[in-house]
């Protein structure tokens, strides 16, 4: 009789082990299924193996870029044959590298060209928006010349990529430019130029600007041509020469 019980026990143990294996297989299947469903939902319901759809890039339509006015930040003459409208970001490393190129353009062509700076602060550059607003406060207190001095210094000193120039250094920079630091800080803290910066970014986007620097060359007769990014001087020169013919 004891032997029979022992055999029965061994039989039940084997059956239990087999059942456990089956349960683990089933659990693994459902775990994998649930993982797939979660991934599918995170991708907006895109079928497995199909590429996730990306939002369409803005269509390039340079005619939608606003005309240059006396309210723009202009370096050079309004009567220049060509105006280069640059949409830029104070914390963009490519803008930093392109800034000397634009200076070289002015040195090379003199009164034939003018340079307009417009704001296009990228959302992932944490300090760019406030630095852009600061430039407008600088302009309010010191005029167009102070704006360009500020812009030159930012690009000389920033390490770029988002927080390369500390926001706490903006007031000392305003004072370095001979401006009232208290009035500057009050202006910056008020946010009075937030919408101006945002409007310029939106206007650039409507024209198809997708990144920085985005520079549009505008001729006297209204022809428009895009400089594709932070090109070296020689390539920019080729574009300018073709439009000056």
Sum this structure up briefly.
Helix content is 53%, strand content 11%.
- For the biggest β-sheet, the strand order reads 1-3-2-4-5
Helix content: 40-55%
The radius of gyration over CA amounts to 30 Å
Write the H/E string, N to C: HEEHEHHHHEEH
Largest sheet: 5 strands, mixed
Give the total of beta strands: 5
Model regions low in confidence, pLDDT < 50 over at least 5 residues = 1-11, 32-55
Report the end-to-end length measured between terminal Cα atoms. 112 Å
Give the overall shape, derived from the CA principal axes: globular
On the 0-100 scale, what is the average pLDDT? 85
Please give a handful of descriptors for the protein shown.
five-stranded mixed beta sheet, 7 helices, 245 residues, alpha+beta, globular, single chain
Notes on the structure:
It is a single chain. Helix content is 53%, strand content 11%. The chain is α+β, with helices and mostly antiparallel strands. It has a 5-stranded mixed beta sheet with strand order 1-3-2-4-5. Helix 2 (93-109) links the parallel strand 2 and strand 3 (113-119). It is globular, with a radius of gyration of 30 Å. It has helices at residues 2-42, 93-109, 128-157, 170-176, 181-190, 194-206, 233-244; strands at residues 73-75, 82-88, 113-119, 214-219, 224-227. Helix 3 packs across helix 5 (181-190) and helix 4 (170-176) crosses helix 5 (181-190). The chain contains 7 helices and 5 strands.
Helix and strand arrangement:
Elements: H1 2-42, E1 73-75, E2 82-88, H2 93-109, E3 113-119, H3 128-157, H4 170-176, H5 181-190, H6 194-206, E4 214-219, E5 224-227, H7 233-244
Parallel strand pairs: 2-3
Antiparallel strand pairs: 1-3, 2-4, 4-5
Helix pairs in contact: 3-5, 4-5
